[in-house]
Amino acid sequence: MNRFQNYIIILLLATAVGAFHEESVFEDEDIYNQALPTVPSTGITVPGTKWCGPGNTAADYNDLGIQRETDTCCRQHDHCEEILESKQSLYGLNNSDLFPIMKCTCEQIFLNCLQSIDNMFANTLGRVYFGTRKKCFANGYPIVRCKQHQNGTYRQRCILYEVDKQQPKIWQFYDMPFYSYKR
Were 126 and a residue from 116, 148, 177, 179 both cysteine, which residue would form a disulfide, CB within 3.0 to 4.6 Å? Predict the structure, then answer.
């Protein structure tokens, strides 16, 4: 190989490493962000559901897909009381992501709902969603540092924080846990 070919190969490798940040395709949020339109309601849903995905295809609130239990979880999640929409600000927090960021209580309810179903469909959806979505927001004492991490395949997330209870509560981002199967 000549020097030009070596340069091109190195450039391609550097571009690939920079694009994926050494993360698995299944856990790399950027891959999923690029694959879907950025409009709030795309009408794209997970097959077998009418509520799981960006937007919904339901005729009305009671219209559910054949994966009824999972779809019920997604419908409830879609109706979260506080959502930080893409490219918007709320409580001084900015969402530069292509997808909305949900309030942490809504994410916890969604996680618990999928885990309670405990079938392959719900567990797969949970793994994909919680593997690609990284953060949620809540009003809590200021974070000092992470005390405990949960390890994923290529990255880790904080699941226990040291907080400063001497300070007033503030709105801030928290890591979401990776999905785990009900045991």
Answer: 179
